Amino acid sequence: MLKRLAVAAAFVLVACNDPQANPTGPSDDIVVLPHPLYLYSATEVGLMPGGTFSTATAINSAGTIVGQADHCTALLFNGHLVSLCSTTGYYKTSGGTMKAIPMLPGHVTATATGITDAGIIVGWSRPSGGFPVPSGWFYDPATNHLESIPSISGGGVVANAAASNGWVTGTRTNGVTLAPTAFRFSVNTHFLEDLTPAGFAGSEGYAIDVVGDVGGMVYTATAGVTHGFAWYGGGSTQDLTALESSVPYATAINGVVVGPFKPYDGVTPRVFSYMIGGSLGDIGAGINRYPTAISSLGRLVGYGTTSTHTPFTFYNTVSSSLPTVNALHDVAPAALNRCGTIVGTGYDAAWRTHAIVWSKLSCD
Prior knowledge:
Oligomer: single chain
Strand order of the largest sheet: 1-28-27-26
Number of helices: 1
Structural class: mainly beta
Number of strands: 28
């Protein structure tokens, strides 16, 4: 499941029919944007008190960043000073400090995976024990209200993403049959809908936009065989495997799918392909480059896979490399907001993760 979630981070939805969301460009090379207003600088988001690692998974229009971090508190126990540490979701407002998100009762580890423009944070957590069942949740820092997303017969819930207006998607597992299903949930109205289509054994949801379009994958009746899949807010669906999807994950954007697809030779992955109305095209951002996010104005971010991850952004047909900070390596962007501010994660020399934010002087 954790591996699957890590791959899922490579797909994000936007509600946008703007043609800039589907730029076409001929270059495979990284080109640095010339104007200083659009050059990015990188800084670390930081660490929690006593902590050693952090990640960044999402950012909203106000610049509030969420992710996962550890933090430790020194306690005196039987005359000895000991550290009590935990791994939890956090949020950090623009110009503020990192703050831990409360956990559900009995839970010992958590991560925040999305945030709405109203500041509602979504994520999931696990209790202690040999077979911990995850719970999805949403949290309002303004009221300190933390609430679970309903489960199916006591099964697990993982919330993977949130749209800016409160739509959430992820995966619910039936506590009796153990079958997983993608879901669509609203933190505003508590509307909840399971999405596994007829004829499939299960599904998982990874990305969602403001009109409720969901990107994810479905399990076929053949063991081990999955398809990229898109559910649209109006009720229609689309199986993407027939369209040369090279990875069983998908991103739907009001009829547009962005992700790593096979080129027409069917062998070499090529990133930032797009599909409109069933027609597959190639944006041309580079061979072996993989998408992680797209903004509502069509800016894409991702990373190249050579000997190490190389972060970059692609906008208005131009691709530019993103800088790293403090010698962090294997850096991968995870999300960005409408303005174009980007968040992601890199590794230090000891392979501890550090959350990063990339910003520029001018909004897109």
